Structures are given as C-alpha cells and as structure tokens.
Amino acid sequence: MKLKNIRLLKEPYKSFILYRETNPFSAWHYHTEYELVLIIKGRGCKMVGDYIDRFEENDLVLLGDSTPHEWLCDPEYFGEDGQFRGEGVVVQFVYDFLGSEFMEAPENAPLKTMLANSARGIEFFGETKLKIISIMLEMESLPESERLYELFSIFRIIATTNEYRLLASPVFLESIEMSGNKLMQRALHYMLQNFQQNIQIKELLKITSMSNTAFCAAFKQTYRMTFKEYLLNIRIGYACKLLTEGSQNISEIAYNSGFENISNFNRQFKKIKGITPSQFQEKLNATHPKDL
To answer: Quick check: helix, strand or coil at residue 236?
Structure first.
C-alpha cells in the first residue's frame, strides 16, 4: 500500500489542533503529530499498523508519532451525489507542544508511557471512552484557553486508565524505550533482534540476570502478556508487515517470521488476528484494490 504523509494545518497562534472532519477520511497515511481520533458518524474498516478490524460510531483511538493508519468508511457513507456522510473529531499535538521539559517531568511518567504505547495505537473502552468523548465534544464550543485545560483532563484520564487495548503488534513500535524496567528493555531489545530464531527463555534470563519466576512476573507486569505470547505477537506482526508489502508468498513469509512450518503459522496467525494470512491479504486487496 502507498503510505502518505498528511498534515492538518495548525494555526500559528494555537499550540494544538482540534478539528471536526467532515471530508472523506484520509487514505493510508501517517504524520509526526500524536492524534486522538473519535468517529462521530461512520462504519467500516480500520487499519492501524498491522491491525485490521471493523470500526463503529464512537470508536476512539490514540495514535502515536508516525503510526500509519486509515479509517475507510463503508459505501453507504458515500452518497450518489458525492457527498460524504461520515464525521469525526480529531485532536492533534506534537510531543513537546508544551515545551521540551513538560513531558520529561517525573510526574508525567505514566502519560509518557502511554504516549510510547500509542505507537501501536491505543483503543479506549468503558467509562474511559465515555469520559474522553464527552470532553472532546465539549471542547469544540470552548474558548482556546479552556480547550487547553480540557486537554489536560484527557491526559489525566489517559495516564491513569486500564480501560484500553493496544492494536498493532509490538513489531510496529518505533522505539523499544519503555519508562521503568531497564532489564525488561534489554529482554525486548533481544527479542526484536532475534525473533526469527528459536529464542529460549534461558537466553533472556542470562541477559537480565533474573530467575525464571522473577523474569516471568516482571515481563507480564511490564508488557501485559507472557514472554511466549509477546514473542508470538512480534512474529505475527512482522508477518503482517510482509503481507502488506506483498513481495513474498505466504510460505516465505511464514519462514521469515520465525515459523518452522506453514500449518503452525496459519494456526497462530488466526489465533492472534482472527483471520488467516490469506484472508488478511484479501482484506488488504479489497481495501486498496489499486495498490500494487
């Protein structure tokens, strides 16, 4: 797929962007701003990194710096008169829009971690989603100074919530820097460099100088899944990247992603993505039939 760099126009006297989108949502693209996307009207196919799924109204996702994404509405949202019937609200900001020291303040460590995680796309649900949606809609009618303070309220919610899930696989992270456990950073760095090989947990125990019990507990606390689950997500994520590029067949992709046979690859891919590698490709081709 062709990936475009698309930027919203920021007015010079504003530090961040609050924008109601009434034009057709942008095709597969990225930008250097962090982006909080709320779908007001629309249903269709959502793509974030190597993640593909359906979206509905009130879909709420935080996207990181340079994370590729697209919300493609179903045909019913494109009228015969050419009028687009979808609608969304977008908040965009750069990492240092409040100054280079704001995000580095010790009190902002939880928010900084969430912004790092947003490289994979963060989908919010539950009370968290309802609260953020309410604030975003209210912000549209507020003066500029009040909008800024409401954005701080959103930051507070994002920094403290557990009502979210990460969309794209770990392989789509731009950086492996995670605030907190340096030993887990070493383990992740090794996994990202060697995921195509047969990684044994004893190798990670040696790198981190930890016992099996301590390592497994620390890893799950840091990354919200076990070592084996995370490694599988890395491999499937890399496979999705190769499937998106379309330069290799499925057997080659399975081998190059660290799987020893095609049947295990198909089984594990469906377990993670809910569809087979072939169906994943079909979805890509249906979404972007002109891309070669």
So the answer is: helix
